[in-house]
Specification:
Elements (H helix, E strand, L loop, with lengths): L12 H18 L10 H24 L3 E5 L1 H7 L2 H22 L7 H4 L5 H20 L4 H14 L4 H18 L4 H24 L10 H20 L8 H7 L8 H10 L11 H7 L1 H25 L2 H19 L4 H17 E5 L3
Antiparallel strand pairs: 1-2
Helix pairs in contact: 1-10, 1-15, 2-14, 4-6, 4-7, 6-7, 6-8, 6-15, 6-16, 7-8, 8-9, 8-15, 9-10, 10-12, 10-13, 11-12, 13-14, 14-15, 15-16
């Protein structure tokens, strides 16, 4: 097999990583880390059913666009992604994050109390601006100085104490560079190891800084524990289907106007007490509307990712950056679930850009 021809970051990677996540959780269950006990066979079945419907979504896109020709309006794309505009947005995103730190009065990474308040509206706007613009900047323009902006932005978001945002920035930029700079396999492997180490460090420092909790697990044990713990939350969700009656999606969509954290609702429902917790990518839809909603979610997700992937392969350009952002977050959703407004907005932005600049016609036209 010619490994150089394998597209590591095709939408299929999601399936591979879910399987890896299950293995990680099994390690946590096997060693009973902090009292982990395991999950029911029904939960494993639902996970595999979700993966099957995700793959079905990929196949639907392939079928629908099998005989379609895609055309790109480059003038429109260049208009919205000029170097001056994108660079200005990157700097603006960084400035907003600096303002957020000043507003909070400290570095949330080292304080559980500050971390609980870190996801302000300023933070949301900063992330919404910075992540797409830094990826587009690195995808389209060849200037080494732009990597400094990436590092500065990454450090600022690491300081918020949220693993997910830091990992999304690193993973999305890696995917962007993978497609635009043709990263050799050895460097790709080193980069993935670096991401893994960053995940361990940021996660470990963040939990150690929570003043009201005491952790005795090592960074590696913590990784296996988180996987097992989240699978146990999903296990509870499987037997509580439809119990939140749409509260999770409502509070997610209203995230800019309401301070309610959907993950606290997940914790209250599955654990019986108010605690911000995650339930994997499958949990929120199950809790809100049941199995059918989760399966529909997975079909739509597979359809959209495969569509953006096809457009990215055809035209490159800023679609590489947009695909990288969405794939990075879907990978993170494996643990956290789709309960963040900002990520849904990235999907909306991508769909709008596609509608604005891409047209389809039949192959024989």
């Amino acid at each position: 097999m010619d490994y150089k021809k394998i597209d590591v970051f095709s939408p299929v990677i999601f399936v591979v990583l879910v399987m890896l996540y299950l293995i990680f959780s099994y390690v946590g269950f096997h060693y009973h880390l902090k009292g982990l006990i395991g999950i029911h066979i029904e939960t494993i079945g639902i996970v595999f059913l979700g993966l099957i419907f995700y793959i079905f979504g990929l196949l639907i896109t392939k079928y629908i666009f099998k005989d379609k020709k895609l055309t790109l309006n480059e003038e429109k794309i260049n208009k919205i992604s000029s170097e001056r505009i994108i660079l200005s947005l990157v700097i603006l995103g960084i400035l907003f994050q600096v303002i957020n730190m000043i507003y909070l009065g400290g570095i949330p990474l080292f304080s559980g109390y500050l971390k609980a308040k870190a996801a302000t509206r300023i933070w949301l706007i900063s992330y919404l601006i910075f992540l797409p613009s830094i990826n587009v900047l690195l995808a389209k323009y060849e200037k080494k100085s732009y990597y400094v902006l990436f590092i500065v932005g990454l450090i600022l978001f690491v300081f918020t104490g949220y693993r997910t945002t830091a990992m999304a920035i690193v993973i999305s930029v890696l995917i962007t560079l993978y497609y635009t700079k043709k990263i050799p396999w050895k460097y790709l492997i080193l980069a993935l190891i670096g991401i893994f180490v960053l995940l361990l460090i940021v996660g470990y420092v963040a939990v150690q800084s929570i003043e009201w909790q005491t952790w005795t697990l090592s960074p590696l044990q913590l990784l296996f524990y988180r996987a097992g713990y989240t699978l146990q939350v999903l296990d509870n969700a499987v037997f509580l289907q439809g119990s939140t009656h749409g509260q999770l999606i409502y509070n997610t969509l209203m995230g800019f106007f309401k301070s309610t954290d959907p993950r606290v609702i997940v914790g209250s429902t599955t654990l019986g007490y108010a605690h911000s917790t995650t339930s994997t990518i499958f949990g929120p839809a199950l809790l809100d509307f049941g199995l059918y909603a989760m399966l529909i979610q997975m079909v739509i997700l597979g359809f959209l990712l495969e569509l953006i992937y096809k457009i990215k392969k055809t035209f490159g350009n800023i679609f590489i950056a947009l695909y990288a952002i969405l794939l990075a977050h879907v990978i993170i959703w494996i643990e956290t679930g789709p309960t963040d407004l900002v990520i849904l907005l990235f999907f909306v932005i991508t769909i709008l850009v596609m509608l604005y600049s891409v047209k389809t016609t039949k192959e024989d036209e």
